[in-house]
């Protein structure tokens, strides 16, 4: 008999990807499709939920077609989705708002007001595992109530892209505990929607979806089977959030295992056996399975910072790369490699979209510090890579205070295509980093939850048995010393600009 096949669906920030997997981690085929992000006002970042659903249906259909051509079929599908999205619905279940993404900071003033009124605002973090920040749906609901009362009043339900997609596929409106734990509304200890926050927001528990396990499943609706080519009635597993599923997908599932991801954004995470919060409020804690939690921190600006550098300063490189038949980022990386560690004194603070962990400052803005006449495009590219790695280091240092030192660090995300960037991260963290043989972290992690739900795999720790290491990057002595010195300067620049960040963010919103 041929091995069982499940499709992992990863609904991300800028696109959706579907990958067909066997339980041993072998991928059989994949499809992906992008969708737009709309920024109509400063600090806003929103999407059309129906464009996302259309893209999801399309990639599933493409994968089903490929499977059929090879004589295989999917026995189930499981969903990974981006954390912290927000969508309101009317009483018929139709959206009343656009989908607000994690990058949407429109509720910043609401968060400031909450911090002024509640001197013990860290108590919200201690209950929910979510620092008080505008990215969380809790703050977005508060913004909607205050700034758009007419929409708030005709909105009967509040959810996310995950529960919207699951309802489209199965007809049932529920949300998994993982996405719920990343909403800023879910009590990690009572395992229910936080009563104090419901009162503050003037909403009832019935306005939020019922919370279910990340291995919960429902049969696929006949209509969606016709639209995707899947078999009607096959199980659809609700899955978890993309960030925590990365650990599963890359095999970082044992005590002390850390994952470090740089894609559009970036994150450092470690699995724990219970909710784990930081007394200083620097890290978050989200659910993965009924018995596993993930402590970590995420940065807003990972690959998005290098994309900004490419789009605005490397148009020539894009044309040259196209003629050579190579990726433009590969060419940029080759330029940056010619510059010594430290970019000859140029430091990038890559706060293009504010910042999350560990300082949770939505007003932070990008800074290029130390520019001289000797600096050129090559220095700027390398400084951008280094600046993102400084951000990752700041999370690692905070997280290790909470969870203890890392036993192993595995990496994932689009940045692993750059050997230079991987080496910079190893040097900045002063730790070995391992590149696994699987880079579809979230999609594979979702499929694993499907295999667990079906009883094919025992639990998520099974991935440690067959996800292997392809390459290890070790820190080098000269670079380590350089980055430790520059990280200290970078840190002082950040803290010395607190009022200036607030003032320039306010000016930009005028």
TrEMBL record:
Class of this enzyme: transferase
Keyword Kinase: yes
EC number: 2.7.1.12
Boundaries of every Carbohydrate kinase FGGY C-terminal domain copy: 259-454
Biological process per Gene Ontology, one example term: carbohydrate metabolic process
Any Pfam family hit: FGGY_N
Segments forming domain Carbohydrate kinase FGGY N-terminal: 5-249
Domain of life: Bacteria
Keyword annotations of the record: Kinase, Transferase
One MF term in the entry's GO annotations: gluconokinase activity
Family of the protein in this entry: Belongs to the FGGY kinase family.
Protein name: Gluconokinase
Organism (species): Pelosinus fermentans JBW45
């Amino acid at each position: 008999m041929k091995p069982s096949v499940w499709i992992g669906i990863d609904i991300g920030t800028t696109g959706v990807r579907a990958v067909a997997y066997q339980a041993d981690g072998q991928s059989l085929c994949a499809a992906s499709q992008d969708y737009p992000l709309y920024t109509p006002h400063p600090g806003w970042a929103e999407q059309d939920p129906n464009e996302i659903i259309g893209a999801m249906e399309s990639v599933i259909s493409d994968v089903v077609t490929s499977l059929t051509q090879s004589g295989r079929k999917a026995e189930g599908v499981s969903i990974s989705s981006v954390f912290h999205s927000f969508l309101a619905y009317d009483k018929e279940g139709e959206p009343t708002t656009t989908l607000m993404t994690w990058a949407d900071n429109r509720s910043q003033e609401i968060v400031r007001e909450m911090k002024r009124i509640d001197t013990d605002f860290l108590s919200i973090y201690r209950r929910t595992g979510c620092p008080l920040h505008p990215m969380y749906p809790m703050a977005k609901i508060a913004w909607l109530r205050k700034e758009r009362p007419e929409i708030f009043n005709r909105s009967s339900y509040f959810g996310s892209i995950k529960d919207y997609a699951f309802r489209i596929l199965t007809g049932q409106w529920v949300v998994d505990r993982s996405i719920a734990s990343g909403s800023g509304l879910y009590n990690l200890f009572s395992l229910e929607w936080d009563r104090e926050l419901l009162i503050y927001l003037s909403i009832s528990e019935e306005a939020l979806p019922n919370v279910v396990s990340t291995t919960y499943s429902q049969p696929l609706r006949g209509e969606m089977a016709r639209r995707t080519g899947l078999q009607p009635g096959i199980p659809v597993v609700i899955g978890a959030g993309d960030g925590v599923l990365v650990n599963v997908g890359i095999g970082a599932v044992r005590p002390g295992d850390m994952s470090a991801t740089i894609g559009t954004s970036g994150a450092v995470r470690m699995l724990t056996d219970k909710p784990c919060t930081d007394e200083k409020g620097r890290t978050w804690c989200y659910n993965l399975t009924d018995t596993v939690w993930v402590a970590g921190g995420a940065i807003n600006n990972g690959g998005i910072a290098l994309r900004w550098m490419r789009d605005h300063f490397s148009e020539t490189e894009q044309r040259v790369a196209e003629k050579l038949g190579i990726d433009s980022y590969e060419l940029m990386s080759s330029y940056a490699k010619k510059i010594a560690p430290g970019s000859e004194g140029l430091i990038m603070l890559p706060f293009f979209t504010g910042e999350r962990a560990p300082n949770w400052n939505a007003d932070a803005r990008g800074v290029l510090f130390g520019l001289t006449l000797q600096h050129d495009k090559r220095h700027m590219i390398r400084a951008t890579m280094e600046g993102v790695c400084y951000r990752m280091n700041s999370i690692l240092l905070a997280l290790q205070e909470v969870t203890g030192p890392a036993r192993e660090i595995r990496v994932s995300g689009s940045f692993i295509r750059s050997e230079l960037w991987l080496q910079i991260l190893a040097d900045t963290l002063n730790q070995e980093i391992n590149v696994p043989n699987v880079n579809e972290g979230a999609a594979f992690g979702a499929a694993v939850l499907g295999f667990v739900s079906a009883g094919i795999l025992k639990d998520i720790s099974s991935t440690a048995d067959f996800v292997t290491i392809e390459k290890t990057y070790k820190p080098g002595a000269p670079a380590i010393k350089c980055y430790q010195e520059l990280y200290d300067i970078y840190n002082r620049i950040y803290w010395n600009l607190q009022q200036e960040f607030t003032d320039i963010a306010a000016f930009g919103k005028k």
